[in-house]
Amino acid sequence: MGYWLILFVVPVGLILAYSFFRRSPTGGVDYTFTLDNYVRAADPLFVKVLVFSVRTALLTTLISLVVGYAVAYFIATRPQRWRTPMLVLVVLPFWTNLLIRTFAWIVLLNNEGLVNRILRGLGAIDGSLPLLNNQFAIVVGLVYAYLPLMILPLYASIERLGRSAREAAADLGAGPVRGFFRVTFPMTLPGVMAGCIFVFVPSLGNFIVPDLLGGGKKIMMGNLIQQQFFQARDWPFGATLALSVLAITMVLLIAQAWILNREKRLIAHGA
Amino acid sequence: MHRSRLLIVLSSFLLFALVAAACGSDSGDDPGSDGSSSEPAVPLEDQELVFGNFGAYTPDGFLEDFAAETGVDVTISEFSTNEDMLGKLQAADGTGYDVVMVTGNYLQTLIDAGWVAELDHAQIPNLSNLYPEATELAFDPGNVYSVPYTWGTTGLCYRSDLVNTEIDSWDDLLNPVAELQGKVTMLGTERWLLQPALLSLGYSINTEDPAEIDEAKNLTIEAKPSLLQFNDTDFYARLDDGSASMVHAWDGWCNYAANKNVEFVVPSEGSDLFADTMVVMDSSENKEAAHAFIDFVLAPENHLKVAELVLYKVPNAPAMEMLDPALIKAYPNMGISPSQLVTYEEDLPLGTEGQAAWSQAAAEIKAA
Fold first, then answer.
1. Between chains, do B359 and A232 touch, taking CB under 8 Å as contact?
2. How confident is the model at residue B115 (pLDDT cuts 50, 70, 90)?
3. Which of A51, A102, A129, A219 to mutate to test the interface with B (most CBs of B within 10 A)?
4. Does the pLDDT at position B25 exceed 50?
5. Any idea where the domains of chain B sit in the sequence?
6. Which chain B residues have a beta carbon less than 8 Å from that of A201?
7. Quick check: B90 contacting A, CB < 8 Å?
């Protein structure tokens, strides 16, 4: 309770409070009540950026889910002694700074980068593919950055499921595809939801990847918030924008809780 | 069951670690007051200094030389940017530092907040080394609060082996010739983002007129399709790897490109003038040492080391005379004369309304 108060309620309360004040001429907070920040945030510009951010984060989440599910399934179905080393390999990149790992993608994806040179060497392309400074690069960077957050909860629920449910489905005549979509996937839904939220939420707020890999030509909510705090030094407006991202996150968490509850009730009623 | 919970908890921790990392919070080097109460009567050699400076901005051996000369120990506390510095000062209400580096257009913020002390020129005899131009900068005429450490301008930095046209206008960046399409980068920071367009249109780089800002914004949006990227971190590396042929660059940073064909030019429409300056904090209990430190920096042999390290000009006449001519040949920006430099317009602080308009324009350009 105490932790909850200190780590969540106080910071969010501060952001909420700042959003009703104005920027002082020196870049501090002038404690005069105003709703101007909310009027500014309703500008079509910010709605446009929000839509782009949500779409990019959704795409990132979807790709992470497909790739992450395959990886988690593979690891969970290996013999016990292989699982831990494999999971360590999944988590290993986290020990390097995100900024450095993002710069590494610039080295890989630029016009004279490794990917383009290999493709050219194979004769697959002439010239260069535009792999950097666009939405493609942003999604690649985000998927790479947050994939482990998808794999871990998925692994947890697939492993918990064990072989018995899959075997039962097969015995009752479900082919591998039907067995997967009717049994395995629904029963790992809690892991799927957790993974999706773990990937979607930080993707929405990330500003390093759009800046470095997207070349700053496409921006996300994180960039706008960063711009307000670090360049304009307008904390009240930055706080207002941050709240909009927070609101989306809250809606998602509530939706997740609602869906999981419904599943539980269905199971309890013997569906 | 238990293990899967553990994994979810583990991944939540990773998530928070990531979020913290993405926010770039750099804690750890907060300079607290050191507890040694120093009355005005404390002899110089018993005083200590905390010097707040940008990273990689203090020459090697600088502090050791100062300690050997005066007996004063200096601790460096690094900032990444002016905004970072302001944030740290705001959090501590201007305490915790004795000498701080600040870019000229941010100085007024520190003065308004009451954080900086007026300088006692009698304690800084080396002030006489400054170029006369450096004593009359608009953000602090007469060096009442600040002493410039470096000064510079912004221009176009390009690979002469890849650019076959003459580069002498901001339009060369905003509306590049066919061979430069997709091969140019622009600074993306609010303060510099609008400058090429404003200078090309003949407006002040400190304008707060909504119509002028709007016009510059539209011109910049039109230039966006021909940009490789907005870049204010490693644009010089883009020249080296050949993905860019020309970049919008601060003069000193142009010198960080390794390629030998890199040239720097200030367009004919003019440019901006910025200066990083040293100030003494009002809360400092070691003002005598703080003044002595500034005087030490202004000694020609010391200020020369600053120029050699950061490859920006220093506003110190005898120091610049001592500069190796080979360095000026290799880095032509080092040869821009003070009288030329002051023909450029100084970056000045914007008012609240103006700041909001600039901010909105920057966001619209980026989102376009």
1. yes
2. very high
3. A219
4. no
5. 44-152+274-336, 154-270+347-367
6. 15
7. yes
Average pLDDT across chain A, whole number: 90
In this predicted structure, the answer to whether residue A157 has a pLDDT above a threshold of 70 is: yes
Residues whose CB falls within 8 Å of the CB of residue B341, separated by 6 or more in sequence, listed in order? B133, B151, B152, B153, B273, B313
* Average pLDDT over every residue of A161-185: 87
pLDDT band per the 50, 70, 90 thresholds, residue B29: very low
Residue A104 Cα distances to A94, A118, A183, B187, B232, angstroms: 14, 16, 40, 22, 18
| CB nearest to B109's CB, from A26, A99, A145 | A26
Element (DSSP H or E) covering residue B172: helix B171-174
Q: Give A248 to chain B, closest Cα distance, Å.
A: 17
Amino acid at B58: T
- Sort B27 into a burial class: Cβ within 10 Å, 0-12 / 13-18 / 19+: exposed
B19 band by pLDDT with thresholds 50, 70 and 90:
very low
ipTM, interface predicted TM-score of the complex: 0.83
Percent of chain A scoring above 90 in pLDDT: 59
Q: Residue B38: its pLDDT value, please?
A: 43
Mark which residues 341-360 of B lie under 8 Å from A by CB: 351-352, 355-356, 358-360
CATH architecture group of domain A33-268: Orthogonal Bundle (1.10)
Chain A interface includes B362 (CB < 8 A): yes
**What is the three-class DSSP state of A216?**
coil
A-facing residues of B in 104-163 (CB < 8 A) are 109, 112-113
Chain B CB contacts of A202 under 8 Å are 15, 18-19, 22
Domain B154-270+347-367 classification at class level: alpha beta
Task: Pick the residue of A217, A224, A244, A245 with the most B CBs within 10 A to test the interface with B by mutation.
Answer: A217
Instruction: Catalogue the E-assigned strands of chain A.
Output: 22-23, 29-30
Cβ pair A230:B81 closer than 8 A: yes
Residue B286, pLDDT > 60, answer: yes
A52 — contact with chain B (CB < 8 Å)?
yes
Q: Predicted confidence band at B366 (pLDDT cuts at 50, 70, 90)?
A: very high
B293: nearest Cα among B41, B13, B48: B48
Name the residue among B193, B233, B187, B190 with its Cα closest to residue B80.
Answer: B233
Mean pLDDT of A233-243: 92
| Residue A157 touches partner B, C-beta closer than 8 Å | yes
pLDDT greater than 70 at residue B31: no
Model pLDDT, residue B143: 97
Domain range annotation of chain A = 33-268
Architecture of domain B44-152+274-336: 3-Layer(aba) Sandwich (3.40)
B11, A153: Cβ pair inside 8 Å?
Answer: yes
Distance, CA of B106 to CA of B151 (rounded, Å): 14
> Do the chains contact at B4 and A23, CB–CB below 8 Å?
no
A36 near B CB under 8 A: no
Fold equal for B44-152+274-336 and B154-270+347-367: yes
